[in-house]
Each structure stands twice: as C-alpha cells, then as structure tokens.
Design goal:
- The chain has a six-stranded parallel beta sheet with strand order 3-2-1-4-5-6, sandwiched between helices. The chain has a three-stranded antiparallel beta sheet with strand order 7-10-11, covered by helices on one side.
- The protein starts with 6 loop residues before the first strand and ends in a 7-residue tail after the last helix.
- The protein is 41% helix and 20% strand.
- It is of the alpha/beta class and 317 residues long.
- It has helices at residues 15-26, 41-52, 55-58, 97-114, 127-138, 150-165, 204-215, 217-225, 232-246, 291-310; strands at residues 7-11, 31-35, 64-67, 78-81, 119-122, 145-147, 172-173, 176-177, 185-186, 192-193, 196-197, 251-260, 266-277, 280-284.
- It is globular, with a radius of gyration of 19 Å.
- Helix 5 (127-138) packs across helix 10 (291-310).
- Bound molecules: 1,4-dihydronicotinamide adenine dinucleotide and oxaloacetate ion.
- The site of oxaloacetate ion has 13 residues, from helix 8.
- NAD(+) binds at residues 12-17, 36, 100, 123-125.
Length: 317
C-alpha cells in the first residue's frame, strides 16, 4: 500500500471557493480541484495557477488545479460546495432559494456520480435548506452531508465579545444554535471568556447588542461590500470543519446536521453542536434548553422549514 494526499474538490470558484482553496493548501490538508461552470473555465484555471505559484513562497506542497469538468473530481475524498449566487444589499438569504436550489441539484448529481464516497460540506445559501437539497439529491448518509453556518456565526459573536472586553479572541468561546438566518440563536448561557460566564463580565444590555449584531452579521458585511457577501471568515470556518474531519480530530463544533428527533425535530437540517471527526458528523450533542431558548430555536427551525417546504415539489433524486 501507499499513502496518498486527500483529494478535495471545491465546486464554485468565486470569492468563498477560492479563499477556501488557498487556506486548505496553506494548511496542506490535501490537493485542491476548483470547479466552476464551462464559461468560467479559463478564469478558474488562472486562479488555481496563481495560487499554486504562491506555494514556493509560502512553502506548501498541495497541488491546486482548475477545471469545468466533473470528471476531474473522480473519487474525491471531500467536496465543498460554494456554487451559487450571493445576495445583494436588501435581500435575505432565503431570496436565493430558487436559483441556488437548481444549482445545488445539478452539483449534487455530479458529486453522486463522480465522488460517491465523498464527504460533503455545503456553504451555498440559504444554507440549511441547500444542505437538505444536497442530502436528498445525493442520497448519501447523513454523517457525510454537512452544512456550515455555526462556526462562522460563533466566530462573529466571539469577535464582538473580544472587542467589547478588550481580550484575546482565543479566550472567548461563544455558542450559536439554529438556522443561518436572522433568527439564529446565540446561546449566552453557554458562552464564556476565560472560563468565566459572559453574564458575569458584560451587561445584559451590551450582550443583547452583541447577539443582535451576530444575528445580522452577514447582512452587515453585505451592506459594507455593496457587492457580494463575506468570504474570508466563511472560508476560515469551512477549513476548520474540513480539518476536524480529515485529521479525525473529534472537535466539538456547530454544524448544520440532519435531525431525526434531536431537539424535537424530524427531517430537517439545522445548526446544532456536533462532534466532527473521521466519520463526518459522528454525533449530535443535545443540550438542555430553557423554555425561552427552546422557543427561539423553534422560531429558527420554523423559518428553515418554510424554505424547505417551498422546495418540496422538486424531484430531488
Ligand atoms: N453558509 C454561509 O455561512 C455562507 C454562505 N455563503 C454563500 O455561498 C455562496 C457563494 O458565495 P461567493 O463565493 O461569495 O459567490 P461568488 O459569486 O463569488 O461565487 C459563486 C461561484 O459559483 C459558480 N457557479 C454557479 N453555478 C455553478 C454550477 N452549477 N457549478 C459550479 N459553479 C457554479 C459561479 O460561476 C461563481 O464563480 C452564496 O450562495 C453565498 O450566499 C457565503 C458566505 C457564508
Ligand atoms: O450574509 C450572507 O449572505 C452570506 C452569509 O451567509 C454570511 O456572511 O453569513
């Protein structure tokens, strides 16, 4: 036998896809294949080559290639889906559902055909519903189809807390549950700085401001950019999840997971705390919630359900 590098495909070579590619290569988590639509083939190859030419300077040996042919993702170990349109100022993530669901079905069919054993990480919005579409279309087991939102939402929360306290981001550990929309649920009761409950360090009023800013964190960046949406922090979040899986780290990280009774929900993808390791989502951690917290989670789950229901007439398989 011989050892091989991981083969990591990234579908969608736009802002999030390319930033993720570079971060994966810098960490040498595997060789990266960037895939975009045929009309973007040359720019995709160009971006890949440009990144590869950074490797002698940055001293990484991951290969990076660009393509528009799904043949090139054959037998990939990991596929990250960033294909789809981003929102514009004034839009919600849910406004992207019709366009991105079509793209997600097409992408998922190709992954099923060419990389049937792969682990999939979905980023495209509205991400809870898009992860559901990917799961239904590929028919892969639920531990191998995962969505990203909570790592990013928690990172935003932690950034604002560290700024408020004037302390290192390394010492802040927040906790965000629920769907990736304005009704997500930052769980203050489970959030700490240096092991000290946040409520002991920051006033209730200020915490409420941070919670609100976190909920609208994606929209804040959309407004500031004027065109497109966030990509540095989303890419960093994807890479943390990929690393947890390919290194079998068994990290406790929030993931968008398929729920089958957990937290009282069935047949839905929603952001919950999970253990991420060599088998993808190895388990969902169920936490006791207060009535107020459970009600907020219910509101968030309801808004995800509504988007999923819009898609129910689609033939996923
Ligand atoms: N879940 C999350 O936390 C986050 C989700 N997002 C979402 O990620 C998606 C991508 O965002 P960006 O990279 O900024 O957008 P972008 O517009 O820069 O890139 C998207 C790329 O997808 C490609 N594409 C479209 N259809 C395709 C197909 N059928 N096959 C392959 N590639 C295809 C486009 O040509 C484009 O290059 C958006 O839907 C955005 O809302 C972005 C940030 C965070
Ligand atoms: O806000 C958006 O449209 C992109 C996204 O999901 C985020 O940055 O959280």
């Amino acid at each position: 036998m011989s050892f091989k590098r991981n083969k990591i495909a990234i579908i969608g070579a736009g802002f999030t896809g390319t930033t993720t590619a570079l971060m994966i290569a810098q960490k040498e988590l595997g060789d990266v294949i960037l895939v975009d639509i045929p009309s973007m083939e040359d720019p995709t190859k160009g971006k890949a080559l440009d990144m590869l030419e950074a490797s002698p300077v940055q001293k990484f040996d991951s290969n990076i290639t660009g393509t528009s042919s799904y043949e090139d993702i054959r037998d990939a170990d990991f596929v990250i889906i960033t294909a789809g349109i981003p929102r514009k100022p004034g839009m919600s993530r849910d406004d992207l559902v019709a366009t991105n669901a079509e793209i997600m079905m097409d992408v998922s069919k190709n992954i099923k055909k060419y990389a049937p054993e792969s682990y999939i990480l979905v980023l495209s919005n509205p991400v809870d519903a898009m992860t559901y579409v990917c799961y239904k279309t590929t028919g892969f087991p639920k531990n191998r189809v995962i969505g990203q939102s909570g790592v990013l939402d928690t990172a935003r929360f932690n950034t604002f807390v560290a700024q408020e306290l004037g302390v290192s981001v390394e010492d802040v550990s927040g906790f965000v549950l629920g769907g990736h929309g304005d009704s997500m649920v930052p769980l203050v009761r489970y959030s700490y700085a240096g092991g000290i409950p946040l409520e002991k360090l920051i006033s209730e009023e200020k915490i409420e401001e941070i919670v609100e800013r976190t909920r609208k964190g994606g929209g804040e960046i959309v407004q500031l950019l004027g065109q497109g949406s966030a990509y540095y922090a989303p890419a960093a979040s994807l890479v943390q999840m990929v690393e947890a899986i390919v290194k079998d780290k068994k990290r406790i990280l929030p993931s968008i997971a398929y729920l089958n009774g957990e937290y009282g929900y069935e047949n839905i993808y929603l952001g919950v705390p999970t253990i991420l390791g060599g088998n993808g989502i190895e388990s969902v951690i169920e936490l006791p919630l207060t009535d107020v917290e459970q009600n907020s989670l219910n509101d968030s789950a309801e808004s995800v359900k509504k988007v999923i229901e819009l898609l129910e007439d689609k033939a996923f398989a």
